[in-house]
Amino acid sequence: MTILVFGDSNSHGTLPLDRLGGLGRHPKTARWPEVMARALDAEVIVEGHPGRTTVHDDPIDGAHKNGLRALPALLESHRPLGLVIVMLGTNDCKARFGLRGWDIAAGVGRLAQVIQASTAGPGGRPPRVLLVAPVPVEEAGVLAEMFQGGPARSRAIAPALRQEAARLGCAFFDAGRVAKVDGRDGVHLDAASQAALGLAMVDVVAPLLKED
Predict the structure, then answer these.
(1) pTM above the 0.85 mark?
(2) What CA–CA distance (Å, rounded) separates 7 from 4?
(3) How far apart are CA 159 and CA 157, in angstroms?
(4) DSSP strand pairing (128-133 vs 83-87)
(5) Number of separate helices (H) and strands (E) present in the chain
(6) Residue 72 CB coordination number (10 Å)
(7) What are 40-83's pLDDT values in tens digits?
(8) Predicted confidence (pLDDT) per residue in 107-130, tens digit
(9) What is the CATH number of domain 2-210?
């Protein structure tokens, strides 16, 4: 069964930033989707786009950051998919968007509905969906001003997304239970948190792979 990870920079493996515009990336073997893939012995396709939002065009970084625009093409190009893992919402916490945690969870839910309405699963059925609440951000380092107010917004995502997942019949996991952001920029995960998240996801994903 093929798994698609649809995420942002923390699925891409972006290193914590010491300066704006840094392009560093964890080695492939250290990124959480790869840690999960090795433990599950599963095929995992990673579509992690730094700066990706749930459903919003970014007025500064561009409309191509909108996850809703990208998702349909990715579902078609990678099918058949047994499971789609969506871990987005961090970039929705930027001050420029002015969103609440509930708004962000609703954006993730919109993506889930696109997946559920697709023919991207085996036999033209929709894939299963796992919604992952992102690790809460902190106002720290070079991204502090960009994410002003982000800690409160990001901590409100998990409870709202848990309800959204239940409403839509999706599986749910809260990444903030096992990982934390690096204090250098308050947004990205260090190697230890990448590994911890990847291993925790094994216990969440394995039962989903066994379902008919």
Answers:
(1) yes
(2) 10
(3) 6
(4) parallel
(5) 7, 5
(6) 14
(7) 999 999 999 999 999 999 999 999 999 999 999 999 999 999 99
(8) 999 999 999 999 999 999 999 999
(9) 3.40.50.1110
